[in-house]
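Workshop exercise sheet. Pairs work together: one partner reads the sequence aloud, the other fills in the structure field after running the prediction. Swap roles for the next sheet.
Pair: D.N. / O.F.
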Amino acid sequence: MNRPTPSHPVPAAYAGGRCTLVGAGPGDPDLLTLKALKAIQAATVLLVDDLVSDAIVAHASPTARIVHVGKRGGCKSTPQAFIEKLMLMAVNEGENVVRLKGGDPFIFGRGGEEVEHLRAAGVQVDVINGITAGLAGLTSLGAPLTHREHAHGVVFVTGHAKPGDAGTDWRQLAATARDAKLTLVIYMGVSGAATIEQELLTGLPADTPVAVIQHASLPQQRHAVTTLGALHATITREGLASPSVIVVGDVVRGVALATQDVGAAPLQARRAG
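Structure field:
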């Protein structure tokens, strides 16, 4: 049986190696998919993001080579070009490479860039999805991201633009979220919370419920439930920092109903469990 010729033939140098982008989820190893676990266990080389917990890396084979390639907003990071070079070098050496990324590789994980780079070099790449922190964070508080009465959809958006990019049009997004009844899930937004709050208030009421979840799913998880008008003040007072997700919308009332009215003073940040 004749097989079709691939559009990007694999060079002979890469024929013995392979690469898989694996979503490690928000941090709790119990939230790994079975497919992700199998890939981690089978890897001979793992390139591990900074936000992947040690408990997840512990599933790797004792003989695997583990390379930590930390990338975290506001901190010194391994250059993306260097990571991509390491991936190609390991595949070239015939290794079974797993690029282990926090959350999901295709949700603010630069997975798309890595896939494009590898495929351009003729390397076939597999991708295994993971649970993203924006979903895990609010779920851990007992509230949904969508609800027939409160939210018809959800928008995942970054609060941190790359250099030279104007970034998110928060005013337009606020108007759209208001008119279409959307939940906003903001990644990497803590450092820019003051601006995000100010801009979102042009289209959303000040009493719009907001949850901020730090270290989603991990034992050290902390969160605060507040309102949009008190977002920056709450983050500052409670010392919430990266990595955190900010969830904006009426679905957050599902958290507040079990505690207090979100229209009152902001809730004290608390640990999970």
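Discussion prompt: The chain is about 25% helix and 20% strand. What would you look at next?
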